[in-house]
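Question (not urgent): is this output format expected?
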Amino acid sequence: MSDLAPLPATELARAAGYARAALAPATLAAYAADWADFSAWCAARRAAALPAAPTTVAAYLAALATSHATATLRRRLAAIGRAHAMAGHRSPAAHPAIRDTLAGIARRHGTPPRRAAALGTAELRRLVATCSDGLRGQRDRALLLLGFAAALRRSELVAVAREHLTLAPEGLRLLIPRGKGDQEGRGVELGLPRGRRAETCPVR
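Got this back:
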């Protein structure tokens, strides 16, 4: 009989907390909802959800083929795979039957992702022209010009603080502490040159 004591619960909880931090809260919430949907689908058909047979997962994806985007199905599959891995089971996501099913769905029903039209310089000038001369208007103007010049996401723009900006002879240096593609928080520094027109220059 082993006389080794189990690890303290606090240390196990700390490790679990770091494991949860590997994914963004929004991703974890989406995975939880995806897993709940798959579990309910399996329960309605008296099929095992954990561990799930590859044919069960393939049938689930096929059932959603005409009502959900391919990207959503890939996320559902990722959620199913993560649930299996966290429970100590082999993920069914890499099974050939599932890969072929998903590839067939994408080939038959896949559509190019929709992309929002980019904001042009003319539209930017019109937006800037609506900003007042007061503090709020100056703030809005600065955010519009900074976001346009640096091509920032909304989450990155609203997170900009004064200490992230540094004036330089050639323009402005902007530090983005954490972006969508920088989950480890290493940060990215961007250089923004002075604009040729005063009304659209992000530095002046």
